[in-house]
Amino acid sequence: AQKITQTQPGMFVQEKEAVTLDCTYDTSDQSYGLFWYKQPSSGEMIFLIYQGSYDEQNATEGRYSLNFQKARKSANLVISASQLGDSAMYFCAISPDKLIFGTGTRLQVFP
Amino acid sequence: EAGVAQSPRYKIIEKRQSVAFWCNPISGHATLYWYQQILGQGPKLLIQFQNNGVVDDSQLPKDRFSAERLKGVDSTLKIQPAKLEDSAVYLCASSLVWGQGWEQYFGPGTRLTVT
């Protein structure tokens, strides 16, 4: 069985600062994918970034990067230069074949 | 490119009533998913379709929930009869193909309140 753990229920960050959202996972599969999604108050889940378990380099997408440490089974999301529009819920998910989500972290960016 | 469409956006019903949700995935996407998101939790997969066939419905409460995807395009999810614990947001998602690395695109969701 797969499991995602997000231990930070809420995080605050000042605009233009960087922030790291933690995610640890548990799986017995050798091949899997790790995803981060953003959910604004409007409710829609927005894909941010993907990391495959065999990818040797950390994934990056614009201001988002995924700090993948396979031995520690962690897949932290780093947002550089935070913006007010980054305020939202952030979900980490694992997929050997279907997405299994964590409980999320609420990020609030203040001016 | 149009995104995943869902309707209605909000629904309030009394317990023991029935309700149906509709989803139209992104054109050309073979795989369609229905998720249930209870307040304070991450989405939980209810059912996954590949074209018009069911791939995974292991977490669908089949005594009250049903879903279909006729013609392999749009889909409906039905609850009959509803219980208080069914209050949640129901998210539909689609992906081009079914597989580990393929991004899922989500619709805006339907917020169901059962009173």
Topology:
The complex is a heterodimer of chains A (about 110) and B (about 120).
Chain A: E1 3-5, E2 10-14, E3 19-21, E4 24-26, E5 33-39, E6 46-52, E7 60-61, E8 64-69, E9 74-79, E10 88-95, E11 100-101, E12 105-110
Chain B: E1 5-7, E2 10-13, E3 19-24, E4 31-37, E5 44-50, E6 53-56, E7 65-68, E8 75-79, E9 88-95, E10 105-106, E11 110-114
Parallel strand pairs in B: 2-11
Antiparallel strand pairs in B: 1-3, 3-8, 4-5, 4-9, 5-6, 7-8, 9-10, 9-11
Would you write up a description of this structure?
In chain A, the strands form three sheets. In chain A, strands 2, 5, 6, 10, 11 and 12 form a six-stranded mixed β-sheet that branches. A four-stranded antiparallel β-sheet of chain A has the order 3-9-8-7, with no helix packed on it. In chain A, strands 1-4 form a two-stranded antiparallel sheet. Chain A has strands at 3-5, 10-14, 19-21, 24-26, 33-39, 46-52, 60-61, 64-69, 74-79, 88-95, 100-101, 105-110. By secondary structure, chain A is an all-beta fold. The mean pLDDT of chain A is 95. Chain A is built from no helices and twelve strands. Chain A starts with a strand and ends with a strand. With 115 residues, chain B is mainly β. In chain B, the strands form two sheets. In chain B, strands 2, 4, 5, 6, 9, 10 and 11 form a seven-stranded mixed β-sheet that branches. Chain B has a four-stranded antiparallel β-sheet with strand order 1-3-8-7, with no helix packed on it. The chains are: A mainly beta (111), B mainly beta (115). Chain A binds chain B through residues 4, 31-33, 35, 37, 42-47, 50, 52, 91, 93, 95-104, and chain B through 33, 40-45, 48, 56, 89, 91, 93, 98-101, 103-109, 111.
Low-pLDDT sequence parts of chain B: none
For the termini of chain B, the CA-CA separation is: 37 Å
- Following the backbone from N to C, one meets helices and strands of chain B in this order, namely EEEEEEEEEEE
Apparent shape of chain B = globular
Give the helix proportion of chain A (percent range). Answer: under 10%
Secondary-structure-derived class of chain B: mainly beta
**Inertia-based shape of chain A:** globular
Task: Give start-end ranges of low-pLDDT stretches of chain A.
Answer: none
Overall mean pLDDT of chain B: 94
Query: What percent strand of chain A?
Result: over 45%
Distance between the termini of chain A: 41 Å
Radius of gyration over C-alpha positions of chain B, nearest whole angstrom: 13 Å
